[in-house]
Amino acid sequence: MNSKISIQHYESKEELLKGFQVLKQLRLHLTEESFFELYEEMKKEGYKLFGLEDHGETVAVAGIIILTNFYNGKHVFVYDLVSDQHRRSNGYGKQLLDYIHEFGKENGCELVSLQSGLQRIDAHRFYEEKMEYSKLSYAFSKDIK
Fold it and tell me: Is the pTM of this model over 0.85?
């Protein structure tokens, strides 16, 4: 990894705010207030937010959790992977996912799993062609409010 690049686990309010500035480019519904409320709940469940910095500037983030289930065994689930919209195609997403792959191995995980919205064609191409992920299923949801 380039010496100007670093990946950190964001935990302090200042770090989380830096991560939020990138995360909100994908999660458009989030406000700063809702981000912190949800983060506190997700953190209790094991959620971690990693930030990739280039010369001290947050240029990509990934939110992950380690889960165990019958079909994936122990695995890393990627909730969020976002590169700053003005800094895409610089290899940041790949570096962050490579880091998550190693993090998973170090924590006894068997695989890394994620979901991606149907409309995110460029993201799908990235996962399948650059990162060699397999498309295994559809994800379904139903609003029950």
Answer: yes
